[in-house]
Amino acid sequence: MNKKIMILLAIIGLVLLPVQAQESVDGFGNGNGNGSGSGNGNQNQNSGENGNGNGIPGFNLFEGTPFSFEGTVISCGTGGDALVAATVDGNLTVTGLGPSSYWYSLEAQKPVVGDPVSGKGYTVDYNSLERNVLTEITVNGVKVELRGEDGRPLWRGGSNGNNENAQRGGGWGGSYNDILNGVPFTYEGEVICAYTSNFGMTGSGMQIATAAGNISVVGMGPQFYWEISEVDRPVAGDIVTAKGFAVDYNGNAVNVLMSITVNGVFVQLRDPETGAPLWRGGRNND
To answer: Within its chain, how far is the Cα of 196 from the centroid?
Structure first.
């Protein structure tokens, strides 16, 4: 073989190797934000929050103005992991609910439209915009702590990185093929709420009102994938048919999407042969 060609192949191998290695470490992550942690937010377990307007450094949080509120959810999935609540003082947008995986680890349901909620946090300046960042929220009487004493998100380990729920709520490093070994499901109904944050495997999900009750599904993928598919991402009120597999995730059953039909338009999300997300080029992480 020509010596120049051999050298070129060797260089290409060195460039591709870190990408494959990161897949095996980071598992099912689909995050693409620029967080406040040590990484760039791209499937890095050491990175901070995602780039959906929530990557506010924890150590600046307490420099903000404390707030508390009580009301009813009128919109959710706004700006990633945010919601809008109707209060006696008007509509209030709060952010920092965290990834669905963290809520799964607590066996709690993320708030949806119509839920009574109350919470506390700090109003901070973020890129010259005011953001109401939650430190805790109570949904239907169930209190969920969101940030530790240092202001950092508990799904990232809180003050000392040893928070049990944060450990359980992290990314799953298993094989994509493990998804295909789960229990198949098909749910049809109306979307109650859709969260679009890109935290790990269970970051981007929604709740669907079905004949069997309200069902949570995850793994809708990043926004750019929907844009290149030329399909509008599901929002509250859309009629969907969701298909996938229920898998064990840190002791909890999680419904991972393989495909979804939105208002009659079909979108394949994962490779049916490997379980790999198609927004990553269909690569497996074995």
So the answer is: 7
